[in-house]
Amino acid sequence: AKGVQFRGIATYHDTAQGKQRGTNTVFCFTLDDIKLCHLGDLGHLISQGQVNEIGAVDILFIPVGGFYTIAAANASRVCDQLKSRVIIPMHFKTPQCTYPIAGVDDFLRGKVNVGKMDSSEIEFKLGELPAVTEIVVLKPAL
């Protein structure tokens, strides 16, 4: 690795400016010239100012399960705003999850270029990132 650069962008864990569930930090990392953005427990649509702060994104980690975070429809809107090359959904219901959240299929409905992996790990290299946005669903570790 050539070094890691990262920064946090203040957001909220709900639609009430943190009054229900508090704050959330979006973390943007640059590693080997690949920009990753982890939205954490984002609970609202992002503003144009936040889009500008985040900037260009190669790989986006986005919550899609709802209830505690944004749900599928708003997750799709955020993906449209950030226009990343790879989207990795997270925070969705799995057989081991007892939280009252939706599964990943709500987010995937109607989407193209979707790959479901048999592993909870994947490796990306700058020159091999897709030209057209791809959604990669990793095998849940839990």
TrEMBL record:
Gene3D superfamilies: Ribonuclease Z/Hydroxyacylglutathione hydrolase-like. InterPro entries: RibonucZ/Hydroxyglut_hydro. Pfam families: Lactamase_B_3. This is Metallo-beta-lactamase domain-containing protein. It comes from marine sediment metagenome.
